[in-house]
Structures are given as structure tokens and as C-alpha cells.
Amino acid sequence: MKRTLTGASSDGGRGIGVRQVPLSTLSLVVGQAVTYLLQQVNETSELERRLQAMGRRVGFRTFDLYCLRFGVQKREMRIVPFLQFVADKIWRSWFGHAAEVLKGENEYQLADINKNVFHSAVSTTECNLGSYVAGMVEGLLLVAGFSNQTTFVRVTAHHHYPQAQPGAALPLGPNVQRGLILGIELMPRSDG
Questions:
Q1: What does the alpha-carbon distance between residue 20 and residue 8 come to, in Å, rounded to a whole number?
Q2: Which of 7, 118, 163, 177 could form a disulfide with 19 if both were Cys (CB 3.0 to 4.6 A apart)?
Q3: DSSP classification of residue 169
Q4: pTM of the model
């Protein structure tokens, strides 16, 4: 059976005209990007920062494309409804299923507890590939205007291991089910 990544649909989500990208293609592209970046950097944190910057550009373009394709005239300026829009519409167009929006005291989260596509497409222990997806969401938030003169956005990626036992060593390897949780913070800018 050929495994694919579902792309954006031009029919309002009815399933007609859905474009799909084979996971082998995604694996090749992301794997080559990681290989290239590994040759350029010395530290994992720098690699993840660059992956996030690459993803940010995808987020910028995705939001504009979505608005043009579906005739979105008004941008949602409240964070929870916007994140729900991202989780229901955009995440579904990226990964073929919706994410869950969670609200904490000082941060919000997008949780994808299914086996995340990036972890199944490319197996690496060199870095957290969720940084790329965090950049994609950060790009959406930036272009939608959530980072401005008074606040800025920070999106971080975290692994989710649904089968891990508390206190036990975390499982690693290509066949381990890993979900992805993105932490999203809107923080006030300091005047310094």
C-alpha cells in the first residue's frame, strides 16, 4: 500500500481534487535538508533553529495560499479561534488529520498525538524534526499578525510518547510512535 501525505484540497475539504505527496518524497526532501544542515552547523540547537526558519517560510506561504484559495477575507485576531482554525483546517491539509488545541495558564498547545508524519518519514536522533513544523505554525501566527509591537510569538516543539511509562527510558527508533506537541506562547515585548 502506498503511503501518502494529504495536501490542500481546492474543493473546500470535500475530498475531490486532494493532492497527495508520497511519504517517500517527503522523506527524501526532509532528509536531504537535514543532511545539508548537519554539514553547516556544529550544534543541535543551531540545526533545530535553522529547521524552524525553513518551516516558517512554509507557514507564511500556506496562510496566503489558504486565504486566496478559499476567499478568506477576515483574519481571526483572537488566539484560541485562530489556533482552532489552524488545527482543523490547515493542519488537516498538511497532515491529513486535525490536531487538538489545548489551553494552559500561560501558553497554548497544538497536540498531534497520532504518529506524526515527520517522525515516520525521516528517522533521526540528531534533532527534533518537530522544529520544522513549529516553524510552519510560527509562520502562520506571524503573518496573521499575532507578533506585533507589544507581543511576540514563540513556538517550541516537543515529542509525545504515548506508550512510554513514567520514569522509564524513552523509546527511540524509526518504528516508535511519537506524537508532536507544539507549545505556543504570546509574550510581551520588553522595551530593552
A1: 8
A2: 7
A3: P
A4: 0.78
